[in-house]
Amino acid sequence: MCCESKRRFLLLYATQKGQAKAIAEEIWQQAGAHGLEADMHCISEMDKYNLETEKDPVVIVISTTGTGEPPDTARKFVKKIQDKTLPPDHFAHLQYGLLGLGDSEYMFFCNGGRTVDRRLQELGAQHFYDTGLADDCVGLELVVDPWIDGLWLALKEALQLQKEKEGMNNAVSSSLSTTPHAVHELKLTSEVQNLKLEDEGARGSDTLSQKLDDINHVAPARDAEPSLVHSVPPVSQSALNIPALPPEYIEVEFQDSQGENPHLSSLISEGRTFEVPVTKAILLTREDAVKTALLLELDIADTAFEYQPGDAFCVICPNNVSEVEKLLHILGLSEKGDDFVCVKVKQGTKKKGAVRPQHIPERSTLKFILTWCLEIRAIPKKAFLRALVECTSDAGEKRRLQELCSRQGASDYTHFIRDSNVCLLDLLHAFPSCKPSLSLLIEHLPKLQARSYSVSSSDLYQPGRLGFVFNVVEFPAGPSRPVSRKGVCTGWLAELVAPLLHRSKNSQGTKGESSSAEKISIFPRPNNAFHLPADPSVPFIMVGPGTGIAPFIGFLQHRQKLREQHTDWQFGETWLFFGCRHQDRDYLFKQVHHLTDELQCFLKNGTLTHLKVCFSRDSSTADVAPPKYVQDVLRLCAKEVARVLLKERGYFYICGDKKHMADDVSDAVVDILSMEMEADKLEAMKILAMLREAKRYLQDVWS
């Protein structure tokens, strides 16, 4: 029950990776300082709240996942409110404020929050506070922090209005606005022009101010540049506004008894997992290519795993062994990695509704938790930095960590932590007097996420086989990162299949096949739209530079088999636009290491009608320089592209990098439509929007 002396509001969160929950917990913690009490629940816990009868204001924090869907925890809620039989005044009694989280690198920015917001409005609910849309691409805190700052006055006004409706005339607080009927508006988006928040107006009394008189300020030389470990004025000389210290809520007990670690399938909530062998590994690039691309083949013949070309699937991967060992060493637990521990909620914790995180087993070895459960490479959130302050003994290091989590140090946090992709190990290397406890890591590090990959095969073409392609991700050493690292999953997979690749190079006629292969755990992640047209006579265009070609190999394999099986069917033309840096180094699926030139085979047998390629780093002696990028080649084929999309109602698929390719391709398509239709750009953009809506312009992109 909420305290009678405090006014209640309902706080709901819908999270996929934990960020929305962490923000909701921040709101819950701050509420008490404003004489308010947040009744906080996951939006999936529909037995613990009832919006149909809710009289108090509602605050919703919701993230976005996949291609614009609400998170898994919100699916039942969204399905319920999307019931078409609900009347338009169903939520006419409801007052709410919504904070959406998203990433503008993706097409459907904050669509999870927008979907819920739009539907609540359709059902008569009223905003008591403007919707905030936070962008992880530039930093969620740029919108989240000021949105929370403005929330308290808006809540108090809403509660005052509610009291007046109930016939109660006593004011909530003497600090309330003299116009309580006005909805407190704070239009927040992630656009840069709206982010001049620190410079405008004074902060409210809710801000935790800490002058740090007891901390020795580190004063670097005037000409020193700021870095992860050093600050310069004005930050180094400022009084700091830092977050409240998150309450501890986990305790870890070491046990003498032995046992077995949980099965990996128990860590996954998305459905059934499959343990399958890696039967083939092929290096698709030359050794001197900028990136290393691998093709792996999995044997799924003895499983119930099903997929369509265009689908994705997830690989359950571990953290790097040496990084886990380093972390154990810093924690002073090198000798206890194989000891079993019991993870429990700390008795007497001040954290509301504290529970053991779902991704942490109640009982397992310490090494299992650090290897399979926690994302030790995660970029530390400000709340984590705030907690690390308390584990740091050196005064200068303590001050710098305080700066990095403060309002005044927001720019330093963005530059030296967020944009530099700094992880916990980097921080502990930079601040050697920081000695966190194991329980603190469990409290603040997010779940180790399975990694998603596009399928690069067809079960019709190769029954019982699943192929996928990836670049081995490289993170070079830098000022904030003392050592270079490979991607968590791609680095692990590359190491896992190294023996297969070695055999491939040294055995004539083989492709790295093995009868005693390593096994990996996977689970399906079907794609609702990125599939071949249902009508085979419809033409389609595929744009997939680099490893973006992966799903299109599956498309073409499937199409080839359909052509063989149905000689009486009519098949539409197919276009593939592919690009890479060098023709002789990273032209994927060209003949390399005994691999058949698959693209040429598709061309020869008629499965692929048109293949257009470009090479961005190759020099040319031609009078007219050849196109460098796929969007340039598209423009050269403008009439054909327009014909396929407009006259023949064809499909257009893009796969690959969002930031550096997909947006440029989209711009090229708009230019092509504008030119060929002899229409202005706005009209062409409307046509493209219609193609997206009709699911004839489809993207499978990543940032």
Automatic annotation (TrEMBL):
<dbReference type="GO" id="GO:0050660">
    <property type="term" value="F:flavin adenine dinucleotide binding"/>
</dbReference>
<dbReference type="Pfam" id="PF00175">
    <property type="entry name" value="NAD_binding_1"/>
</dbReference>
<keyword id="KW-0285">Flavoprotein</keyword>
<dbReference type="InterPro" id="IPR023173">
    <property type="entry name" value="NADPH_Cyt_P450_Rdtase_alpha"/>
</dbReference>
<keyword id="KW-0274">FAD</keyword>
<protein>
    <recommendedName>
        <fullName>Methionine synthase reductase</fullName>
        <ecNumber>1.16.1.8</ecNumber>
    </recommendedName>
</protein>
<keyword id="KW-0028">Amino-acid biosynthesis</keyword>
<keyword id="KW-0521">NADP</keyword>
<dbReference type="GO" id="GO:0009235">
    <property type="term" value="P:cobalamin metabolic process"/>
</dbReference>
<dbReference type="InterPro" id="IPR001433">
    <property type="entry name" value="OxRdtase_FAD/NAD-bd"/>
</dbReference>
<keyword id="KW-0597">Phosphoprotein</keyword>
<keyword id="KW-0949">S-adenosyl-L-methionine</keyword>
<dbReference type="InterPro" id="IPR039261">
    <property type="entry name" value="FNR_nucleotide-bd"/>
</dbReference>
<comment type="subunit">
    <text>Forms a multiprotein complex with MMACHC, MMADHC and MTR.</text>
</comment>
<dbReference type="InterPro" id="IPR001709">
    <property type="entry name" value="Flavoprot_Pyr_Nucl_cyt_Rdtase"/>
</dbReference>
<dbReference type="GO" id="GO:0010181">
    <property type="term" value="F:FMN binding"/>
</dbReference>
<feature type="domain" description="Flavodoxin-like">
    <location>
        <begin position="9"/>
        <end position="152"/>
    </location>
</feature>
<keyword id="KW-0963">Cytoplasm</keyword>
<dbReference type="GO" id="GO:0009086">
    <property type="term" value="P:methionine biosynthetic process"/>
</dbReference>
<dbReference type="GO" id="GO:0030586">
    <property type="term" value="F:[methionine synthase] reductase (NADPH) activity"/>
</dbReference>
<dbReference type="InterPro" id="IPR029039">
    <property type="entry name" value="Flavoprotein-like_sf"/>
</dbReference>
<keyword id="KW-0486">Methionine biosynthesis</keyword>
<dbReference type="GO" id="GO:0046655">
    <property type="term" value="P:folic acid metabolic process"/>
</dbReference>
<keyword id="KW-0288">FMN</keyword>
<dbReference type="GO" id="GO:0005829">
    <property type="term" value="C:cytosol"/>
</dbReference>
<keyword id="KW-0560">Oxidoreductase</keyword>
<dbReference type="InterPro" id="IPR008254">
    <property type="entry name" value="Flavodoxin/NO_synth"/>
</dbReference>
<dbReference type="Pfam" id="PF00667">
    <property type="entry name" value="FAD_binding_1"/>
</dbReference>
<dbReference type="InterPro" id="IPR003097">
    <property type="entry name" value="CysJ-like_FAD-binding"/>
</dbReference>
<feature type="domain" description="FAD-binding FR-type">
    <location>
        <begin position="271"/>
        <end position="533"/>
    </location>
</feature>
<dbReference type="GO" id="GO:0050667">
    <property type="term" value="P:homocysteine metabolic process"/>
</dbReference>
<dbReference type="Pfam" id="PF00258">
    <property type="entry name" value="Flavodoxin_1"/>
</dbReference>
<dbReference type="InterPro" id="IPR017927">
    <property type="entry name" value="FAD-bd_FR_type"/>
</dbReference>
<dbReference type="InterPro" id="IPR001094">
    <property type="entry name" value="Flavdoxin-like"/>
</dbReference>
<dbReference type="InterPro" id="IPR017938">
    <property type="entry name" value="Riboflavin_synthase-like_b-brl"/>
</dbReference>
